[in-house]
Amino acid sequence: VNLSPSSVHERTKRLFNSGIVSGAHLDVDLGQLGLSMKALLFIQMSEHEKSNLDAFVQDVLKVAEVRSACMISGRFDAIVELVTQDTKHLHRVVVEKFSSREEVHRIETSIVFDGTERHDLSALLQLDP
User: Fold this and answer.
1) Which member of 15, 16, 62, 98 has the lowest number of beta carbons within 10 Å of its beta carbon?
2) Distance CA 77, CA 51 (A)
3) Strands (E), the chain
4) Measured between alpha carbons, how far is 50 from 75 in angstroms, rounded to an integer?
């Protein structure tokens, strides 16, 4: 960026202090850690448990294999992204950590074959609010 380290540090510090930047991350190759399988769980809650969806989402984030969990609209109530070693590990996590929960009515599991994430925000910064 053609700036001195101290200038970059000060600008970064201002971005954090202003709340524009709330965190930073590293891109870790999970395959190198033995977690080469990614899956998405589409979860439908029992009708009487939908009011506890926020608590459910927060609770599943405690499962080691879970990378993210979101409330969604449509036929399902939540989507959970997780990583596992293989299909046997995936099956064990789904059965032991999700299917066994009383509040879960139905789960559809999709294995992610390939994907990428976008980290460049330059296009978003050009949008009109």
Assistant:
1) 62
2) 11
3) 37-45, 66-71, 78-84, 104-112
4) 13
Residue 82 pLDDT exceeds 90? yes
Structure tokens at 115: 């994907």
Contact 69, 80 (CB under 8 A): yes
Phi, psi (deg, nearest 5) at residue 79: -130, 135
Residue for token pair 């969806």? 53
pTM here is: 0.79
CB atoms within 10 A of CB 60: 21
Handedness of CA 96, 100, 104, 109 (dihedral sign): positive
Long-range CB contacts (< 8 A, 24+ apart) of 23-32?
Answer: 30/83
Residue 77 clears pLDDT 80, i.e. is over it = yes
